[in-house]
UniProtKB/TrEMBL annotation:
This is Enoyl reductase (ER) domain-containing protein. Residues 1-307 form the Enoyl reductase (ER) domain. It holds the Pfam family ADH_N. Belongs to the zinc-containing alcohol dehydrogenase family. Quinone oxidoreductase subfamily. Transmembrane segments: none annotated. The keyword Methyltransferase does not apply. Residues 328-339, 346-373 have a biased composition (Basic and acidic residues). One of its GO terms (molecular function) is zinc ion binding. It comes from Atta cephalotes. Keywords: Oxidoreductase. The gene is 105619487. Residues 304-373 are annotated as: Disordered.
Amino acid sequence: FMFSSGLNFQDLMARQGAIDSPPKTPFIMGSECAGDIEQVGEGVENFKVGDRVVALPDHKAWAELVAVPATSVFALPPGMSYLDAAAITMNYTVAYILLFELAHLTPGKSLLLHSAGGGVGQAVVQLAKTVKDVTIFGVCSKSKHEALKNAGTIDYLLERGADYSNEVRKISPEGVDIVLDCLCGEECNKGYALLKPMGKYILYGSSNVVTGETKSFFSAARSWWQVDKVSPIKLFDENKTLSGLNLRHLMYQHGSHAFVRRAVNQVYTLWSEGKIKPTVDSTWALEDVPEAMQKMHDRKNIGKIVLDPSLEPKPKPATPAKGKAKDKKAANQEEKKASSVESEEGEKKKEPELTNGTSEDKSDSDSKEKESS
């Protein structure tokens, strides 16, 4: 039974059909949830009814009841809330694998991180700071700089879209040891050029598929063709490493459940020791998921966005917010129409559909709120 759930870029990609082999619509979205076990399948011995767990299903997480393979379920450590579980498990597991399994982060290393203000970005920053003398260059939108500066965990903040390579070179003329790229190759040439000998360039996401210029899986693939190809001989000559991580594929295509479970356990140990604490940007009712998704799409979140089924949905305005004067005028028109033509209201129930397979109930409640306003 689900009490809390996480929102990830993967969910935005699934909504747009921008992932490989998207589920056939209609389907329930979500890839991360926390709650109590209501029922255990035949042959499952390591879990029992009532256990507090977090699950990483391949979609279907945004529901009160979620069926998921036992291999994708993880017992919560004592004292961990469902909100913390939803905020920690996926993001920090990805960050842990990136830093300690792929990049082999050691004291004194330097790291360039894209989307430093997002959920995975903040997890990377916290985990990297558990290692001595690590220098972090964080690239993110200018609007996030002040909040991240106040947090004081990123050594050098760089502006997304600016010529940050020169800024890095001014501070560290020889470059950096590690580049973590979640922009689907958009900055690949810049980042690779910044690597020191023995440096590691790691691709771990494709957030640019749902933001910026790249709007689909196919246009993202096209953008890759504009990136200079890195041949194995070049890597050999320059003593550099190029690697990648896709947690969903690791679990559901490659079957590396034991590897992922070890990483989750390491993350939970660090949490239990007080070395990491999730940064939660905001929590939302399930009914408000379109607005939560829009916030992530616009890159306005700092840390994790969490969905909480126990929350009441936010009151909806009578009309889309396109200016106060227009809102008032539209609201007055709605009231007149509501009192005179009921049939038109019936048609309007179909109009506000935004989404993701859950809009039917939402549009009904929206139209009722319009009538009551």
